[in-house]
Amino acid sequence: MRTKLLKLAGTLIVTVIACGYIVWKIDIGKTLHILGSADLGWLALSTFLMLITVAPMTWRWQLLLKVRGINDNYWWLTRAYFVSYAVGQVLPTSVGGDASRIYETAKRHPGMTTPITGSVLLERALGGAITLVLAAVGFLLAIGRYDIQTYLWIEALFVVLTAFAGIVFFSRTVRQWLRFGVPIARRFKIERPARAVYEGIHGYRAYPSTLARVCGATILVQSGRIVAIWAAGEAVGVDLSLRPYFVLGPLLFLVMLVPFTVNGLAVREAFFVDFLGHVGVGADPAFATGFLFFVLTLVLSLPGLIVLLWEGVRREPTPDV
To answer: What parts of the sequence cross the membrane (predicted)?
Structure first.
């Protein structure tokens, strides 16, 4: 109970601070005018890119499941992906959507929870790693061009941490060292879930070709998502090249994982205002870009919501006559 209250308090504090920052920076009337004048062509492109990237995401997940002996229908996995986006709008972060995929898939494949969990978590981890690789490219392209040094060094830190995590999960030498941590995990009663996560991910060490293909698909997905954000900016008159967006995108995806938010509400928009402000974009169009990205995430969840409603109606018992 205490933990829930602390989390609720943290969420309220973070949201209020972010809202206060936004109100301080933007002119609400001007921002509404910018949103009302958004270019529909750019918006359509941005929406298309967000939706179409689900296809390679499903394909890479199917690959990860298949090598662990779990064969599932591509279209059902696509359905699970869209449902996870809908669930993610209700739960605090996108982690809730991952939990939805694990739960639904585990019900279809009893006794396979560990590899299913590993597939989802590895997919998430590779997504973050590839995004940070793209960020490293953006880092090199942005040095000396934009006043975003603080953001660049934050991303550099995450690149190093991601490389370290990869070594921990895939190195056989490190695996032997991890045995010393078992008593600690047991003491805190997290040994079982920690072992399941580790084994679920470490098992993919034996499938380098699959990991290579998954990484290739992830580069395509993350690049598409970053271009979608750029197109949303173009829709509201933000005239920037793609370079700074390759720095913005990875940090945005990390911001969306912050547990003390209501699906990133206000924090996401405040991040857009601050980051784009460092590259010469006014607060109003910067906020509008962030708001459109939020709208895109809602659009992405609509197919899943429709599926949930349809399946709910079909499950309703027929009343007795």
So the answer is: 5-24, 40-59, 125-144, 150-170, 245-266, 286-310
Is the CB of residue 207 less than 8 Å from the CB of residue 115?
A: no
Burial of 252: CB neighbours in 10 Å, binned 0-12, 13-18, 19+: buried
Residue 169 lies in a domain: yes
pLDDT digits (tens, 9 = 90+) for 100-125: 999 999 999 999 988 898 899 888 88
Given a contact cutoff of 8 angstroms between Cβ atoms, the answer to whether 132 and 158 are in contact is: yes
Chain centroid to Cα 57, Å, comes to: 12
Mapping DSSP to helix (H, G, I), strand (E, B) and coil, where does residue 92 land? coil
The answer to whether position 156 is within a domain reads yes
**CB within 8 A of 35, min separation 6: which ones?**
236, 288, 291, 292
pLDDT value for 320: 43
The Cα 278–Cα 40 span in angstroms is 27
Domain count, the chain: 1
Query: How many Å is the maximal CA-CA distance in the chain?
Result: 75
